[in-house]
């Protein structure tokens, strides 16, 4: 892992640094010319307020990234939350926009998209209790969280062009947002809560046996009133999911969420929680990089404080009043002397503040394995230009072995300048290797494919009389015959695409 740690004097500067690092990581991955994803992510045990992950899509990936078919919604599945409440609010906005702009929106489609009165497929026996129950426990083990979601629900986008029934699952991210103290690492929360409710697993005086425990109930807004009544009439011997029913002697107080919540996990094919029109897509991916804005998560406990200089304090105050010129980094700044006039350190004592931290990393060894796995085919590896051991390999038969140096020199002298939006930049000659082993040309070609050189130049049958070289670029699917005079131009053209 290639790690980077940042320290800034203020939150504003730390966020600017965070954006700079994220853009630098994007530039790094852009060099590979491989599709990658930048998704909002959960900070996990590391903590912090903002986090992004860099992923390569891969069927062998351990992470799941959610994206939208129509907008730029992109997020790690671990962080995705149900946007049912936002969809409901947007319904009115969309209908208002439709009446104003003359959009062909069906009033009925928008009104029924929550499907409160819709009956799910199946008969009454199969859906005696048409809801699911999810349990979690807080970190202090004092509260059992009971989340109730519909067993099945019908999802519909706001324009009514997409609609289907699907099974549901509780969204732990949405539940944790409602109950911040929830401990999602507990595998058997109900059993854990029951065990700790006995009171004999706590240190003396920490959690007395007579203390009140809580059962906090959260109901998804898509659960119908009829299903709620069925739920309250169902005991552990009834059909459907079993629920925890505390006894009066357990000294457990039941609390209810103030309002119905949106706590159903997003699934593939659901309406996008951002634009409410596109469909959510799930992609398996390999995480290659991660950026964290830690804030004061570690600096406060470690007592890592600084006292800003008078110049910095005045500059920050001036900058905060002038949003047109924000600071760009936490490096020492030059300050106009006029800003210091009247500054009195004794009359205005400076307060110490905790450092604003960030940590970032790219998995170099993991990236090599992920790229190799992503681009490899039946013939072998297929490296991007910036990762390949050499950019070009020259392969010839015994007949043209004495001409290899001529071809090599021609390619080595192909440095040039190319025009970009920011001006002309120098383009270096390609990095070459010559396969001069005493093997047949077919053996060398198979070996070149297996190693994964981006471009292969072959001196074959037509080179002797016609000076025609064959160029192969497996990643671009190109095989071409080029005269030696145009060889350098063609090779540069291919390398720019890799």
The amount of beta strand, in percent, is 25-35%
Structural class based on helices, strands and sheet pairing: alpha+beta
Total number of strands: 23
The first-to-last residue Cα distance is 25 Å
Largest sheet: 7 strands, antiparallel
The pLDDT mean sits at 79
Shape: elongated
The tally of helices reads 12
| Cα Rg | 31 Å
Please characterize this protein's 3D structure.
The protein has 498 residues and is α+β, with helices and mostly antiparallel strands. It contains twelve helices and 23 strands. Mean pLDDT is 79; it is low at 88-128, 200-207 and 323-347.
Task: Identify the notable features of this structure and list them briefly.
12 helices; alpha+beta; five-stranded mixed β-sheet; 498 residues; seven-stranded antiparallel β-sheet
């Amino acid at each position: 892992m290639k790690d980077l740690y940042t320290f800034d004097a203020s939150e504003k500067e730390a966020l600017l640094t965070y954006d700079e690092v994220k853009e630098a990581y994007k530039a790094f991955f852009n060099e590979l010319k491989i599709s990658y994803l930048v998704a909002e992510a959960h900070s996990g045990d590391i903590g912090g307020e903002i986090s992004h992950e860099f992923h390569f899509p891969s069927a062998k990936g351990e992470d799941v990234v959610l994206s939208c078919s129509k907008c730029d919604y992109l997020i790690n599945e671990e962080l995705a939350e149900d946007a049912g409440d936002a969809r409901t609010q947007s319904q009115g906005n969309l209908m208002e926009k439709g009446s104003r702009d003359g959009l062909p929106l069906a009033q009925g489609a928008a009104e029924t998209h929550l499907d409160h009165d819709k009956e799910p497929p199946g008969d009454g026996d199969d859906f005696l209790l048409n809801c699911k129950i999810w349990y979690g426990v807080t970190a202090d083990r004092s509260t059992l969280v009971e989340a109730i979601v519909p067993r099945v629900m019908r999802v519909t986008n706001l324009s009514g062009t997409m609609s289907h029934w699907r099974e549901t699952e509780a969204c732990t991210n949405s539940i944790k947002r409602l109950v911040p103290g929830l401990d999602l690492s507990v595998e058997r929360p109900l059993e854990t809560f029951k065990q700790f409710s006995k009171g004999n697993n706590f240190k003396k005086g920490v959690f007395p046996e007579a203390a009140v425990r809580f059962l906090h109930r959260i109901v998804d807004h898509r659960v119908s009133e009829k299903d709620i009544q069925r739920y309250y009439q169902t005991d552990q011997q009834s059909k459907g999911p079993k629920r925890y029913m505390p006894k009066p002697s357990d000294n457990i107080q039941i609390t209810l969420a103030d309002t119905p919540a949106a706590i159903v996990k997003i699934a593939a094919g659901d309406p996008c929680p951002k634009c409410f029109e596109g469909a959510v897509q799930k992609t398996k991916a390999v995480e290659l990089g991660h950026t964290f804005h830690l804030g004061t998560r570690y600096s406060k406990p470690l007592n890592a404080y600084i006292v800003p200089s008078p110049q910095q304090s005045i500059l920050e105050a001036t900058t905060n009043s002038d949003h047109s010129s924000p600071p760009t980094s936490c490096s020492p700044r030059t300050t106009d002397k006029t800003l210091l006039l009247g500054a009195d350190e004794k009359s205005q004592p400076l307060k110490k503040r905790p450092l604003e931290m960030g940590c970032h990393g790219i998995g170099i060894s993991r990236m090599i394995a992920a790229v190799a796995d992503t681009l490899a085919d039946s013939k072998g590896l297929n490296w991007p230009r910036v990762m390949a051991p050499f950019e070009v390999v020259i392969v010839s038969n015994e007949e043209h072995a004495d001409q290899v140096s001529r071809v090599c020199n021609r390619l080595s002298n192909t440095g040039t300048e190319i025009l970009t939006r920011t001006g002309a930049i120098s383009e270096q000659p390609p990095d070459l290797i010559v396969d001069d082993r005493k093997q047949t040309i077919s053996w060398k070609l198979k070996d070149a494919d297996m190693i994964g050189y981006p471009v292969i130049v072959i001196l074959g049958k037509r080179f002797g009389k016609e000076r025609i070289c064959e160029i192969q670029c497996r990643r671009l699917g190109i095989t071409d015959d080029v005269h030696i005079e145009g060889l350098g131009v063609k090779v540069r053209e291919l390398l720019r695409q890799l």
